[in-house]
Design goal:
Number of strands: 0
Largest sheet: none
Strand content: under 5%
Shape: globular
Distance between the termini: 42 Å
Order of helices and strands: HHHH
Radius of gyration: 15 Å
Structural class: mainly alpha
């Protein structure tokens, strides 16, 4: 479809939020409240460019790490550009650093 990262993130977020608005009793109050936010934040990771992140596993692992950071950080990141973007940046940066470290160790 070639919509670009922002449009793809928006589409995924709208679908996730719409599902839980239409079916609020599907997963209980806590999950209904937090799953759309987690999906939206994880979609921020998918907006990373393949010019910088060349391995798909970095994106996938970052997407799995994001909910952990988001759920444990609570309101800690309020005022730092929002908890979703900050948590996504930390998740992607952490896994990107892990990839860099693995490459350094293998080349030594």
């Amino acid at each position: 479809m070639r919509l670009g990262g922002v449009m793809a993130s928006s589409a995924i977020s709208v679908v996730a939020a719409g599902f839980f608005i239409l079916f609020p009793k599907f997963a209980g109050n806590y999950l209904t409240t937090h799953i759309p936010s987690v999906v939206m934040g994880a979609s921020f990771i998918g907006m990373a460019t393949y010019k910088m992140i060349t391995s798909s596993w970095v994106i996938a692992l970052s997407g799995l790490l994001f909910p952990v950071i988001y759920l444990f950080s609570g309101s800690f990141f309020e005022g730092y550009g929002g908890s979703l973007g900050t948590s996504a940046a930390i998740a992607l940066g952490s896994v990107f650093f892990l990839q860099w470290l693995i490459i350094k160790i293998q080349s030594s």
